[in-house]
Amino acid sequence: MEGRPLILASLSPRRAELLRQIGVSFEIHKARVDEKPKIGERPVSYVIRMAEEKASSILKTNHVSLGADTAVLLGRQIFGKPEDEEHGISMLMALSGRTHRVVTSVALYDGSRQETISVVSKVTFRNVSKSEAKAYWATGEPLDKAGSYAIQGRGAVFVKRLVGSYSAVVGLPLNETYGLLKRFGIECW
Questions:
Q1: CA–CA dist 101, 75 (Å, integer)
Q2: Contacts of 140 (CB under 8 A, 6+ apart)
Q3: Using one digit for the tens of pLDDT, what is the confidence trace for 128-173?
């Protein structure tokens, strides 16, 4: 089990940077999954399923694959990546002055065993004006971000409070991911 290579089943530069931050060596492969929620699927169940499907979509002998998914949840509504400017600004306006949940699930799969963890954080936005949302959209930063914002970027100016894991909101809960990696014999540091 020791010394098996890790595959990150994601093209997310944020997840790759977080793994590098804790000294993990890995390859990157694009996960091929349908990211549409199933009818009636609960938001947290959706995020868990996405992480597991991404991890198991990479089948390579003697490797461990890591799949992860992050969603912004306002009530039972899933805020994924914005489809266009109107959608992105509408998400930011819906989050304005409110507290939402950010759920990140991480799954490791080695061909015979899969383990999954999920972390829920609460993020409170200050009141955001429509002109601020439009100016933020114009930066290009929200284009590929769940909830149409990046807490690790310019979107941080909207965040009034965070309760939970900062790295999970970015896209990979490092404390919990480290524990999973250790259980699969993946070296850190």
A1: 8
A2: none
A3: 999 999 999 999 999 989 999 999 999 999 999 999 999 999 999 9
Provide, rounded to the nearest whole percent, the portion of the chain with pLDDT above 90. Answer: 90
CB 175 within 8 A of CB 165: yes
For the CA atoms of the chain, what is the radius of gyration? Answer: 17
Query: DSSP 3-state assignment of 19?
Result: helix
End-to-end CA distance of the chain: 18
**Share of the chain residues as helix, strand and coil, in percent rounded to the nearest 5:** 35, 25, 40
In the three-class reduction of DSSP (H, G, I as helix; E, B as strand; rest coil), residue 133 is classed as helix
- Work out whether strand 114-125 and strand 159-163 pair parallel, antiparallel, or are unpaired: antiparallel
CA angle 4, 7, 10 (to 5 degrees): 165
Do residues 65 and 56 lie in contact, with contact meaning Cβ atoms separated by under 8 Å?
A: yes
Q: Are 59 and 163 in contact (CB under 8 A)?
A: no
Torsions phi, psi for 30 (to 5 deg)? -80, 130
Three-class secondary structure of residue 164 per DSSP: coil
Which of the residues are catalytic?
A: 69
How far, CA to CA in Å, does 97 sit from each of 83, 91, 124, 170?
23, 12, 7, 20
